[in-house]
Design the sequence.
């Protein structure tokens, strides 16, 4: 009887040893695979070791999922941001370098999604309401929008501009149509005007579909739609300016942000190639984006311009802070400060604080000469 019990104990012990050995072997192989995938993703050995610790801290059931799963990667980034904040070491160069790589990898996952990689293939897929620009040789470039899109033709709003007489005839003109599709890329196609019509109560042009839709300027960044009160400053040189301004600026609103630029809504009529700096609060911290206005949408009825601004190279910490907001990695804090609060802060004139301006809206045109615009 005792011999039988000993045999059973030996057999069970052997089975447990085999199981634990296999688990350790599988675990070892899993980490070898983890390091191999990390190397393929462009991380250094030291960075992969940090990622391994983050994966363990985040209790990921499959650590290698960090390199292909958006959710798993975000969980690790949040843990890193939270740890850096609690330890007070978020501002050191090595942390910012590593965080920048993580955000770049996160952006790569987003940019490789099918909807961004594929885009659209013909003008029949353009959504109604899409803003476009129409180029007419010898006349200029005019803003418009898609009013109606059916299989036989497109209907676009007839451009209204003082550059052309009211009697100007569009019928028969050859056009080049440009537009930017949100979260995708820029497109261009050639068309011709078939007729001038009224469509949905709007003076419009009936134009032909483009048989060759060319996809250009693929988006290099992920943009976050927002509506943040901000201040705009006109730069008088091509030099980037990242210092927080202590003097009043022009009231504006940031309508979207990314690590490559922003869209800014201002009063008055702006102009392309204008050098500007935008300053706003992001997660209870002042952020400055300086850059060049590459294009704009002017609403004549409201007398407002949406300035599409390409940012100058940013300090790494600023870029990481913006990407943290874009990807939702930052803790939720109330940074939607109204202008009246910013105006109150102006009276304090404390170092490092944003400075407000008067309550009335100030058009861009009042800050620079007509020649500059």
Sequence:
């Amino acid at each position: 009887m005792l011999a039988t019990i000993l045999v059973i104990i030996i057999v069970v012990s052997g089975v447990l040893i085999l199981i634990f050995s296999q688990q350790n072997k599988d675990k070892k192989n899993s980490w070898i695979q983890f390091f191999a995938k990390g190397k393929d993703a462009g991380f250094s050995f030291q960075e992969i070791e940090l990622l391994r610790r983050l994966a363990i801290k985040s209790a990921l059931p499959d650590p290698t999922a960090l390199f292909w799963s958006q959710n798993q990667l975000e969980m690790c980034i949040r843990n890193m941001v939270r740890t850096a904040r609690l330890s007070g070491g978020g501002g050191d160069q090595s942390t910012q370098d590593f965080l920048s790589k993580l955000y770049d990898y996160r952006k790569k996952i987003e940019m490789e999604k099918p909807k961004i990689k594929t885009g659209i293939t013909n003008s029949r897929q353009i959504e109604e309401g899409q803003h476009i620009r129409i180029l007419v040789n010898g006349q200029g470039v005019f803003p418009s929008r898609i009013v109606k899109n059916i299989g036989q033709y497109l209907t676009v709003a007839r451009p209204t501009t003082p550059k052309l007489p009211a009697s100007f005839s569009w019928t028969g003109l050859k056009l080049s149509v440009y537009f930017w599709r949100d979260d995708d890329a820029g497109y261009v196609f050639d068309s011709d005007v078939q007729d001038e019509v009224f469509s949905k109560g709007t003076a419009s042009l009936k134009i032909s579909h483009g048989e060759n839709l060319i996809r250009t300027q693929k988006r290099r960044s992920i943009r976050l739609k927002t509506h943040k009160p901000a201040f705009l400053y006109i730069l008088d040189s091509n030099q980037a300016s990242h210092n927080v301004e202590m003097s009043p600026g022009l009231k504006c609103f940031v309508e979207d942000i990314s690590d490559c630029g922003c869209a800014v809504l201002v009063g008055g009529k702006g102009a392309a190639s204008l050098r500007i700096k935008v300053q706003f609060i992001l997660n209870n911290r002042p952020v400055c984006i300086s850059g060049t206005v590459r294009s704009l949408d002017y609403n004549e009825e409201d007398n407002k311009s949406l300035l599409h601004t390409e940012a100058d190279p940013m300090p790494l910490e600023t870029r990481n802070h913006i990407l943290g907001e874009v990807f939702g990695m930052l803790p939720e804090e109330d940074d939607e400060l109204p202008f009246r609060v910013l105006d109150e802060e102006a009276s304090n004139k404390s170092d490092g604080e944003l400075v407000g301006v008067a309550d009335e809206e100030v058009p861009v045109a009042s800050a620079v000469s007509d020649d500059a615009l």
